C-alpha cells in the first residue's frame, strides 16, 4: 500500500513550507503529495461544489491555491524519491499541447516522479472566464488525453479529433519512457467509465456525497470491456479511519482497502497539524513501517 498526502499546495502554499513538507514526507515514507487546482475562483457563483454538503468550495474566494505543476516542480527539486500527483487538474480548461509540454518537462526533469490526475471540472463560471465551453467538457477531456499521449510517445505526432487537430508535431523533452500515468478523478459514472477506458488509474473524489465502491467496480468493468486489464487500474482512495485522531485502527482500515484492490491511500494534511513532523513520524511508525515489514 502506498500513502499520499492530499491538499499539499493548499495547506502549504508558501515556498519554505512546501520544501519542508516535501522533505518530511519523503523522510517518513510517504509515496506522493497530491495538489488540487483552480485557476480562479469567482466572487459569487451558482455552480454547486459536489464534494461538500454545503455546495460551496471550502476556503471561499480567497483560498490560496498555487498552480499545482509549478508548486510541484518547486518541491521536486528538494527531493529524490517523492512522487507528485495533480489531484485534480481541470483538463478541459487547458491547451493540450501547452499542458503536454509542461507535464513532460516536469516528468523528465524529476526522473519520472509525476502522475497527472485529471478531472473535467464543476465550476461553470470559471470555464466562462477562461473562454472555454462548459458543455461537452468530457468529450474535450477525452481528446486531450489522446493528443497528449501522442505527443509524449511519438516523433512526428499527429492527432485528429473534433477539438484537437495537428499533424507532424514534435514536443521535446518527452517524459521518461514516453508515458505519464494519468489518474482520472471524479465521483460520477462518466468519470468511472473514463478511468476504465482511458486512465492508468482512478481517484474517486474524497468527500463526495455518493457511494464510491460501485464507481470503482464500474471503472474496472469498463476497463475489461475496452480490452484492458482491470487489475492494472491503479485505485487511489481516501481512508478517514487511518487519520490521526480518528479513534479507529489504521492498520485494520488500510488492510481492508488493500484486500479490495486499492493501491494508494490519500490522506488530507490538516489532521496532521499543527505538529507536522511528529504526526508524520508517528504515522510512519504506526502504519507505514508495519506494512513495510509485513
Shape: globular
Relative strand content: 15-25%
- Uncertain stretches: none
The total beta strand count reads 11
Question: N- to C-terminal separation?
Answer: 11 Å
Task: State the share of residues found in helices, binned by percent.
Answer: 25-40%
- Structural class comes to alpha/beta
- Report the C-alpha radius of gyration, rounded: 19 Å
Number of helices: 10
Largest sheet: 8 strands, parallel, barrel
Q: What is the H/E order?
A: EHHEHEEHEHHEEEHEHEHEH
Mean pLDDT across the residues is: 96
In the sheet with the most strands, the strands line up as 1-2-3-5-8-9-10-11
Explain what you see:
The protein is of the alpha/beta class. 39% of the residues lie in helices and 16% in strands. The strands form two sheets. Strands 1-2-3-5-8-9-10-11 form an eight-stranded parallel beta barrel, surrounded by four helices. A two-stranded antiparallel sheet has the order 6-7. Strand 6 and strand 7 form a beta hairpin. Helix 2 crosses helix 3 and helix 7 packs parallel to helix 8. The radius of gyration is 19 Å and the shape is globular. 39% of the residues are buried.
Amino acid at each position: 500500500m502506498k500513502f499520499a498526502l492530499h491538499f499539499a499546495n493548499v495547506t502549504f502554499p508558501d515556498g519554505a513550507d512546501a520544501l519542508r513538507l516535501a522533505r518530511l514526507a519523503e523522510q517518513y515514507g510517504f509515496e506522493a503529495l497530491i495538489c488540487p487546482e483552480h485557476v480562479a475562483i469567482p466572487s459569487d457563483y451558482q455552480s454547486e461544489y459536489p464534494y461538500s454538503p454545503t455546495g460551496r468550495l471550502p476556503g471561499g474566494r480567497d483560498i490560496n491555491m498555487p498552480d499545482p505543476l509549478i508548486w510541484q516542480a518547486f518541491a521536486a527539486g528538494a527531493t529524490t524519491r517523492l512522487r507528485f500527483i495533480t489531484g485534480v487538474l481541470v483538463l478541459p480548461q487547458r491547451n493540450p499541447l501547452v499542458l503536454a509540454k509542461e507535464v513532460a518537462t516536469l516528468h523528465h526533469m524529476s526522473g519520472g516522479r509525476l502522475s497527472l490526475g485529471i478531472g473535467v471540472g464543476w465550476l461553470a463560471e470559471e470555464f466562462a472566464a477562461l473562454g472555454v465551453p462548459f458543455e461537452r467538457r468530457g468529450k474535450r477531456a477525452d481528446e486531450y488525453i489522446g493528443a497528449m499521449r501522442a505527443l509524449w510517445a511519438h516523433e512526428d505526432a499527429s492527432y485528429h479529433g473534433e477539438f484537437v487537430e495537428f499533424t507532424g508535431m514534435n514536443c521535446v523533452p518527452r517524459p521518461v519512457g514516453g508515458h505519464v500515468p494519468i489518474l482520472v478523478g471524479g465521483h460520477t459514472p462518466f468519470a468511472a467509465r473514463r478511468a476504465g477506458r482511458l486512465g492508468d488509474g482512478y481517484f474517486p473524489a474524497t468527500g463526495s456525497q455518493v457511494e464510491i465502491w460501485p464507481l470503482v467496480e464500474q471503472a474496472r468493468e469498463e476497463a475489461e470491456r475496452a480490452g484492458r486489464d482491470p487489475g492494472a487500474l491503479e485505485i487511489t482512495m481516501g481512508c478517514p479511519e487511518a487519520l490521526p485522531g480518528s479513534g479507529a485502527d489504521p492498520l485494520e482500515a488500510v488492510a481492508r482497502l488493500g484486500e479490495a484492490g486499492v493501491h494508494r491511500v490519500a490522506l488530507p494534511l490538516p489532521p496532521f497539524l499543527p505538529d507536522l513532523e511528529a504526526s508524520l513520524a508517528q504515522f510512519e511508525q504506526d502504519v507505514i513501517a508495519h506494512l513495510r515489514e509485513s
